[in-house]
Write a structure and sequence with these properties.
alpha+beta, Alpha-Beta Plaits, eight-stranded antiparallel beta barrel, two-stranded antiparallel sheet, 11 strands, globular
Length: 319
Amino acid sequence: MIKIDKKDRKILYQLDVDSRQSLSQIGKKVGLPKNVVAYRINRLKKLGILKHHYTIIDASKLGYISFRIYLTYQYTQPEQEKEILNYFVKNKYTWWIGSIEGMYDIGIHIWVRDTSEFSYFWNETLKKYRHYFEKQIITLDFQTIHCRYSYLIDEEVDRSKIEITGGGKKVDGIDNVDLSILKIIAPNARIPLTEIAKKINTTSTVVKYRIKKLQNLGIIQGYRTNINYSKLGYQQFKVNMALKKYDKIEHIINYIKNEPNLIYIDRSAGFSDLELEFHLENLNEMHKILKELIVRFPGVIKNYKFFNYTDINKMQYMP
């Protein structure tokens, strides 16, 4: 665990609110000169706390659907598990991968255009590795709510700003220039307009206009920062809930999204009614949150199961 001060935490929070903010804008909000902000950001990178800045893209509005796969291994040695992980990380269909400790070994999110594309991806995967999969859970993702890392700072902040991916209708009028910009900005949210323009042989004015259009259409949902939460002493827990009274799900969501340690709310078909993800210091904190939920909504939650991610191996929102 690495200790950082309040200023560093505020910088990380501001980068998570909008990672395309300028250093001057961040400096005004955290009370530091621009050059000091730059120094601290570089130091956070060297410490391995700040991993990269990414763009949240709602690929459902580009005509994609999202599936999630949980796998439990059998008959594997570390070298086989490393090979399987590398296979998924390099695969063009995957956009989020996490290593798991608990009831599963790995979680994979993929974007595909239709079920035939998913069938191709999964058949090719099984041809290679079916022998090593003891359990396979496959679900259709239809919504993910992305919450701010407000636990980073010890003060009340606005939790209403969120990004939502999945479940959208395909947007018309997206061309190759738009797609090229999305591919460039997805893994590097802070890349300057001039660099994007140079890569696609156009002007920064065109790029600025196109990005604004993509934001207005809801395809670009926001600009976030990927931090190595484990270096700050946190673990990423996921809770899968079955509800006795499903009609209360929106009440639970509206209540829990004010929890500062909540980072994702997932909704899917064929797995759990509601899935919550947290950055927490220990298991006791998670149990405390869940007990408060049960007391707040008596007779609503049927049961829950949980696990924790030991590493996030891939995060790129562009198919």
